[in-house]
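Tutorial handout. Part one gives the primary structure; part two gives the three-dimensional structure as tokens.
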Amino acid sequence: MTWSSYVVESLPTDSELLLQIEPRQPVNILDVVEQHAEAVEAALAAHGAVLMRGFDLSDERVLATLFERLWAPPLTYVYRSTPRTNIGNGVYTATEYPAALEIPMHNENAYQRDWPTRIGFHCVTPSATGGQTPLADVRRVTDRIDAAVVAEFRERKVSYVRNYTDFVDLPWRTVFQTESKSAVEDYCREHDIDFSWTDEGLTTRQVCQGTAKHPESGEELWFNQAQLFHVSSLGQEMMSQMIDTFGERGLPRNAYFGGGESIPVDVIAHVRDAFEREKIVFDWRENDILILDNMQVAHGRRPFTGPRRVLVSMGRPYSSV
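Part two.
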């Protein structure tokens, strides 16, 4: 199948990361993905990101149905790192951080050993200003990161340490989506997460991959969230305040090398710069559907004003173990 019945544009032209597809006449998006699932997959393999714009959408549940038809049941969002609202059927709100904050570039769930290889976004209501979802080609990001840094993270891996309380960051009940301590313990044992209960709540530690091989292409890609979890992501002033308040080992979250050694701030800054240099940005329109290969393409969120409603669903799970 070709996209001859559609207006097709690759953005940006130097990398062709994002394939924008718009019908020449009204057509229901579910009919397209059901009849041409292989073409959607081929577009994702070639570009990494597909923006479907101007299609007829039935309602907010369309994302769940789309994922069911392409990649079987959508995934649930457990062991959370950000606040979201469950809409139902595997659909969630995008991360509910304050509008004035920017969400750095990342691959969804790259702080875990299991992750979705597909993630989709439905823009129900675009913001008045800002609110874009920047994208970055992770292959190009990996090439930008110094080869010695890539090798170091491949070998040493990344350790994510989280200290859960009821007053800073997400409480453990929200992260694990349960009120049961025994259910948390079962989840941690099943996923090889070290845990200990404290007077304040819970501490967890998990060592995960620094890089990962794409299951289809076999390419080695930078795949972790050290740049998000590392305390330096808060900025110099806030980092100093948090360390003074909690101590480095008591921080609500932080990233280390797999053996527990500190990751230098300048290394994390180098990684962030690689993502920033590969950013592309497009403006959301109402009822846009964006589908990403979650390993090939990283995403973030720009600050915004006015109401903004973007929904998310994830599918086709992959495990590094």
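Part three, for discussion. The longest strand covers residues 114-125. The mean pLDDT is 93.
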